[in-house]
Amino acid sequence: MPDASARSVEIERRSAGALFVVRPAPAHGLGVFATRDTPAGTRVAEYTGDRISHAEAARRYDDEDMEDVHTLLYTVDRRTVIDGATGDGVARYVNHSCEPNCDAFLEDGRIFLETIRPVTTGTELTYDYRLRRPQPMPRDWRRRYACCCGMPRCRGTMLIRPPRLRAPRRLMPSAQSARPAR
Questions:
Q1: Which of 68-79 are b and which e, b meaning 16 or more Cβ less than 10 Å from the residue's Cβ?
Q2: For residue range 106-153, what is the model confidence (pLDDT) as tens digits?
Q3: What is this structure's pTM?
Q4: CATH class (in words) of the domain with range 4-162
Q5: Which of 32, 37, 154, 171 could link 98 by a cystine bridge, Cβ 3.0 to 4.6 Å?
Q6: Gap between the Cα atoms of 57 and 84, Å rounded
């Protein structure tokens, strides 16, 4: 079995050749398009770039001061973020969709994009960014992180809802303990 770096080179070689091409996308900037029919479960790219800390990511990309936010950071774990804006990885051009045909998978500290359903020739490869949002959410974030995928079930944003906090369950007396003692 080839080592991880050789496997990464092979993924990039395939991605630059027969599997897909990077070109202008109808919804946003550049996108990645299949150049042949691709079955579900196909690993199409690795998300690459500088591996930096969350503090460095915040320093490089201050969302508060940026008018046009580009989502090129990918969180690997509590300490590591990949800055896709650095290097020449093609996965940074895979756009968001609320009804994606790819998903991201973490394997040994690396992020890979794989198809989750068959993709036909000419189709844009997409995945759901599922961006976390702070609570409370800043007013302009809905506009700044608006989704333009145009899918029928588009939620209108690349952000995901934070998990709902459940109210503690009230303990109800059981029927057994509710009976009067005899």
A1: eeeebbbeeeee
A2: 999 999 999 999 999 999 999 998 887 666 767 777 777 788 888 998
A3: 0.74
A4: mainly beta
A5: 154
A6: 11
